[in-house]
Structure prediction request, 497 residues.
Amino acid sequence: RTIEIDPEGTSAAYAADPVFRQAVAEMQAETADDVASLKRRKIWMVNSTESGGGVAEMMETVVGLIREVGAEVTWAVMETDESQFFEYTKNIHNLLHGAGDPDKLQGDAEATYEAVSRRLAETIIEHIGPNDILCVHDPQPLAAGAYVVDELGIPAVWRCHIGSEEDTPESKATWAHLRPWIEQYDRTVFSLPEYVPEFLTDRTDIIPPAIDPISPKNRHMKPQEVAEVLARSALVDTDHPTTQFDQVARRLQRDGTFAPATEPEDIGLLFRPTFCEISRWDRLKGFHELLEGFARLKESIRPDANGQTTFDSDSATGHRGDAHRTRIADARLLLVGPDPATVSDDPEGQETLEDIKETWQALDDDLKEDVAVVVMPEDQVRSALVINALQRSATVVVQNSLREGFGLTVTEAMWKRAVLAGSDTGGIRAQITDGENGVLIPDASDPDSVARTLDEVLGSKEQWDEWSLNAHRNVTDEYLVFRQVTRWIATARNAVE
Ligand code: UDP
Prediction:
């Protein structure tokens, strides 16, 4: 099934902003030669669904911008409701991450996967032209695309959004299983070089994920709007555990006399120093370890029976003096994630959220006041605006993932000039250069390591401006959707050559 995209939409949206108008013009200039060499070839983007998940979310923007550079492109999604088909591909996804059930790679489920893929291939063959380029995303349409290539011999690309740095017996067996299908394709695309299996290194292009700078989640917000969104969001009406937010937001609502700030990041100064992590409720996002690390940071300024604190005895921390001690005393932590009921493909979300809430319940009263567990509103646009506002208002955005494929939350926060503390893993390591555009948490699984990093970043105020500017630049250069389109066009050309 092909998805229609508003032909006016993309150009009009970016034309409204001079910076993005310029970015589109640069993208057109950079791709001009490649686009000329693709003449009369239509690019087919095929993925599993029209909505839900990051791939679908970005597709409309990417396809719209590919048209903007003068290439022909069609977006098609799969039409099948065979649950066994998706169980099979979900298992492949898990296996590539070192989980999943290797016994289920063969047998009934595989037979269904192949049968559905044959049917899909026939449908594609009916519509695709002999000069067209087939770009297939992830394991769901992988075999269907391979059958099309086998039949028509057209240029083809397989884009894999899954990435794991660790080779496990499961992932190796799975790659071996997928290999005959993948080898039908001229090119493959991965998000990071670390994720490319060895047998594909000679035919792979790297295309990291990207963000859309005019989407509700990433568009510019004036400080007043940031404050309004926070004040008006569901955060205000929750009795607990969002007490601190409540008070600030109520004050804003009541008298509206907050000092107007000139930069978005200044809005954070209206509140107390705030650490904020926004993620799905997934154990691998390291919420627990972050909460524990935050608790240890607070403990460091609490006097023991002899009136001593570790803050005083720790020369690395103590030299920053009383102002730093006050910042630690005032600091709070926001743990933010979606309503698990709205995330259908993440069955462990509810349990993880309950666990975090229980841990929060068990905290000392003092500490309880300083930590908020925040569940996002169900409405997607509203939730996007709240995320946007939180990433702009937090003093430090934290991403303490124990493992992370790429970490779009990091990209989104860097785009907004946030001060970043992210764990030293996978895609976060690819985005944050320690001490240049943020700081890395050496060991996200160790609360002491987390506490030390929070302490360091909170005490490095004089470097915040430099870090946040570098972060914004990094995203501008590498991770905006314009760059992604340039890379896609180059990949399409590589597939034809
Ligand atoms: N996100 C969201 N609502 C939430 C938490 C996260 O919409 O409550 C978004 C977040 O802004 C980001 C995406 O979900 O765009 C998560 O992508 P990421 O690569 O960070 O992690 P993943 O969830 O894919 O593991």
User: Anything to note?
Assistant: The two ends are 28 Å apart (CA to CA).
